[in-house]
Amino acid sequence: VGYPRDGFNAVQAVKKSGGKGVTVTDNEILEAIPLLAQKTGIFAEPAASAAFAGFLKLAKSGEFKEDDKIAVIITGNGLKDILSAMKSVNTEPLLINPDEKELDNLKI
């Protein structure tokens, strides 16, 4: 977020809770969208996927211990930004008729 609504209080909450912040790139956010959907079934918009991208970055850096309990809050549905979702998977949507047999025959 270029200009957080309440950046000062957000930073204070992170410090007070012993939390940590991490920056992620736009590319890391877009890469997190399909991974989150594939692994959890959650379709997140880019702003919400940023939290998961940060989790992935910290996990790869060895930040977490095996017994750590971690919550990643995803608040925005991917339907809010379909263009970014399409960009994240680099493909066009599959179009089929509303027929169960067509769905069964879909090769994905």
Walk me through the structure.
- The chain has helices spanning 7-17, 26-40, 46-60, 82-89, 100-105.
- It is elongated, with a radius of gyration of 17 Å.
- The mean pLDDT is 89.
- With 108 residues, it is an all-alpha fold.
- The chain has five helices and no strands.
- Helix 2 packs across helix 3 (46-60) and helix 2 crosses helix 4 (82-89).
- Helix content is 51%, strand content 0%.
Notable characteristics:
about 110 residues; mainly alpha; 5 helices; about 0% strand; elongated
For the termini, the CA-CA separation is 35 Å
Helix-strand pattern, N to C? Answer: HHHHH
List low-confidence stretches.
Answer: none
Largest sheet: none
Mean pLDDT: 89
What's the total count of β strands?
0
Number of helices: 5
Helical content (DSSP H or I, runs of 4+): 40-55%
Radius of gyration: 17 Å
Per the principal axes of the C-alpha atoms, what is the gross shape? elongated
- Give the class from helix and strand content and strand pairing: mainly alpha
What is the gist of this entry?
With 108 residues, this protein is mainly α. The chain is 51% helix and 0% strand.
Task: List the topology elements.
Layout: H1 7-17, H2 26-40, H3 46-60, H4 82-89, H5 100-105
Helix pairs in contact: 2-3, 2-4
